[in-house]
Amino acid sequence: MKLIIALAALLLFLSGCSQDEEQTLEGRYMFTLSMEGSFQLFVEDSYTGSSYRYLNGLQTSLPVMYEAESYLIHTTEETVFTDLDTGESALMSEIDFPLHWPNQHLEIRVSEEIEPFTRTLERPVTEESRLFPIYTAEEIKAHPYTSEDFIEVHTPVEDDHYMLFLFDENFNREYLLILDEFGSQAGERYGVYIDVNYYAPDYFETFMEIDDTPSYLVLSSAGEAIRTSDWEEIRSWFSTEAGIGMPREGDPAWRELLY
């Protein structure tokens, strides 16, 4: 008799686990939506796999049949938010909206039965929120957010694509405009794509672990390519590794060429 009871308890436990798995979505936080308390969850696509990237400043060469699995998540006042870093849980009605960082790893138990859904798109999923399924979150478990998560979301996917970050309050503004224009034309001129980022919020310095300024950072498809406090090292790196000559500060020929 005890054996029968034990087996029944085990079956109930396994059934509960199976139900939880069937009603749990796992992916990466993308951004909030216009509908209050809602956000988009990235699972995977045929361009970056399960690695979420936000690269709207770079021209992308999507696969011919580009597909993405993504979901729209709606929270209610009864949704439980659990911070796996601290172990603390709270109702969404008791806290401010807690998700802010792109690429944060989430596990979401939803009210509805999940039907995996993949859409064929003509542009990156970061630019498309329409027609993805909507699920109601019962509980959101947020994994600790790391510098690696933050850098990954800004890391280019394709060769000859670069993200250039300048943390330098005293950087020459006129020269910066020339660099920005150079970056926007480099793809057409040289087949090299550069997204120049200067007006980055303070949290970029935090998650990119910028301890001293000025600092200059280049991300390539391989990850962090160079980090230095010497701007001339950045120019030299692009010349050597990317095969292009970056504009030199104070050189009027570049203004004539670019404008």
From TrEMBL:
<feature type="signal peptide">
    <location>
        <begin position="1"/>
        <end position="20"/>
    </location>
</feature>
<keyword id="KW-0732">Signal</keyword>
<protein>
    <recommendedName>
        <fullName>DUF4825 domain-containing protein</fullName>
    </recommendedName>
</protein>
